[in-house]
Write a structure and sequence with these properties.
This protein is an alpha+beta fold. The chain has one domain: 2-Layer Sandwich (Heat Shock Protein 90). Strands 1, 2, 3, 4, 5, 6 and 7 form a 7-stranded mixed beta sheet that branches. This is Anti-sigma regulatory factor (Ser/Thr protein kinase).
């Protein structure tokens, strides 16, 4: 019987965009044995969510950190999340107040649209709702129908 629920040990990264290559590499390593399509989709989502954590919060400042979470739910849903250090007062959201021309000319703030298109759901939770000490942003990506988790998967996976 395959594992229905699995948790990977959390990974912590310096809140610097130069770490993005390592974030992608670690995620691909942690998902060894999963279908390539799911891995590639999660790597794309990870790129955007990690970049947002660095750019829009205190994680992007000196000594800032970003925490990555990863789990398998119900044997077919991979949930990827990043928790930042807070400090910006902002919440992750897709901008809606733009004309079609402004969207065409916009260079930024399209990443969450990509995450929304690639996942079945995405969202965020405040670490402490009464203060700005961090936000956990997540995306949920399904395995394609008929695929199962790798047979070597255990309920808890150590990543280091």
């Amino acid at each position: 019987m395959s594992v229905q629920r699995a948790f990977w040990e959390h990974r912590t990264y310096p809140g610097d965009l130069s770490q993005l290559k390592q974030v992608r590499k670690d995620l691909a390593t942690d998902l060894t044995g999963f279908p390539d399509e799911a891995v590639q989709t999660l790597v794309l989502c990870a790129s955007e969510l990690f970049a947002n954590a660095c750019k829009y919060t205190a994680s992007g400042q000196k000594d800032g950190q970003v925490l990555r979470t990863l789990c398998l739910r119900r044997g077919r849903l991979l949930r990827l999340g990043f928790t930042d250090d807070g400090g910006s007062g902002r919440i992750p959201q897709i901008p809606t107040e733009r004309t079609a021309t402004e969207w065409d000319e916009a260079e930024g703030q399209r990443g969450l649209l990509m995450v929304q298109a690639l996942s079945v759901a995405w969202g965020y939770d405040r670490t402490c709702p009464w203060t700005d000490t961090g936000t956990h942003t997540w995306a949920l990506v399904p395995l394609t129908d008929g695929t199962t988790p790798p047979p070597h998967l255990k309920p808890y996976i150590f990543t280091r």
